[in-house]
Amino acid sequence: MWRKFLRRLYIIKILHSAVKFVLSVLVLSAFVFIISRLAPGDPLYAYYGERVEKMSVEEQEQARTRLGLDEPIPVQYVRWLQGAVRGDFGISYQYKADVKEVIAARIGNTLLLGGLGFLLIFALALLLGLFCAWREGQAADRMICRIGTVTSCIPEFWLSLLLLLVFAVWLGWLPGSGAYSVGEEGNAADRAAHLILPLAVVVLGHLWYYAFQVRNRLLEEVRADYVLLARMKGLSGKQVLYRHCLRGALPSYLCMMAVALPHILGGTYVVETVFSYPGIGTLAYESARYQDYNLLMVVSLLTGALVIFCNMLARTVSERIDPRMRMRTIADGGEVRDL
Amino acid sequence: MSYLRECLKSDILCMSVGDGEMDLLRVENLSVSFFRPEGEIEALKNVSFSLREGEILAVMGETGCGKSVLCKSILKLLPDIAQIKTGHICIRGEEITGCSEKQMRKLRGHFFSMVFQNPMTALNPCMSVGEQIAEAVRLRRPQLTGRERKKRAAELMELVGLNPPGERAKQYPFQLSGGMAQRCVIAIALAAEPAVLFADEATTALDVTVQAQILELFLELRKRMGMSIVLVTHNPGVAARTADRVALMRDGELFRIGDVEEIFEEIIYNQNLT
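The joint structure predicted for all components is written out below.
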């Protein structure tokens, strides 16, 4: 009976999160919709290109009516929402194709590049941060700190060009553009070879920022009082770091990485542009630039939904690691529970 | 608690020498300095004292006179900027001043143990109480299985009065009161089955009733486990109540050590003079 009640509580909690998620996405969509339409520029350029200038005013009006751009913004939004609920997100003005198709063709590439990059950054930043915190103030730590600061200051496009020059032009070891060679679409080795350089830039560009955060967070923990007690038990400095300090530092790291996931996934457009890598980053940039409303909506909603989802996930995971957060949310929610 | 006592007996370090001539812990001419950019700060100046088997020694003095530094320098838990300049630290006649970090680690978990001033910050906030005690047990007795370890932790919790141990073990430090948290820190210290327990202002952060309970606990533990306790305090009442001998410190110097009656009579006599 009691267990049944608890399980119901759990379902309610999931439902609660789901409702919150949908509401957040809805608010986000309204914001993006209105802001994109208030921004200066003419979406007709995206559809007709240079021909717009040769069109008469009547023709332009007709085109607007055909694309549904002549109505007030709230009406447009409601119409878009009605379509979106049915899974119809409209057509891309620029590509003149269904938005879903345009995105589907490219999202795999971005997920591969950004996702792999994120995983690498996640793991390496943690390891690097741990190593630096362990060797705090020693030669290795100072060296890594210096190199890290320099690499994180190098602009991505410059690093991309440099790597291209060295590895693709001079040495000729790796391909310099695209996601795969022509006709080799299913060849995993070919894809991997195309991925190495963009991936290196994505990882190098972000790695130190996060590693430095881990290092500082850990050093904060190392100075906490409980470390003395842990050392008193007979643990070595390294063991204290792994068993005690890491546990205190992990929740904030997870939260940071959860926010970083969409940032890294969506922030690949510089790399994608330089390496002519067909991904969603370039798409997002272009859709905003050319007033490709329907495409912009879906791309930003994808990123936004990812941000919201990751934040919720990070919170749940953090609560599991740090019991203080769990109890605090219970207290906030007004539920009374015997501690 | 016969199990605990047996554990104690079986261990070489804790085996009583018993002839009474060799002191359990002897500190000679210990000088410790902190090297700061502003210059050298002498925290301890030529401190000498000895601790006998099963004795409670109260170290008294005003705040900042070097009581905590004394404990931490014996345990080598000082920050990097502090250095032992001169002096010897011997346990059972064996010198440990030059011991490596690895050897010290062994000593910390086995021979020495320490209870800290503020129990609320001394415990890791992200680990349950049971887990933290069990970890200390594991370090002391790595041969125990998981279940034995838990049983041992429960025994220790019962010993220090954390009841019922099963429920308490699942709690986290922020769910405990100050007194309960201090009991938990003491349980961790006892898991090391130490020959010498340093109580660094262990009762300062607690109110008077809890303070009395914790001191009672110390006395009982000494009786049961036969360990020596170095009780650092600035409260004369605490010292008078529990200690066998008292050491007085001022400005990093240990200027007087003697039996508790002797010292307190002296203090009262001096006060009457002025």
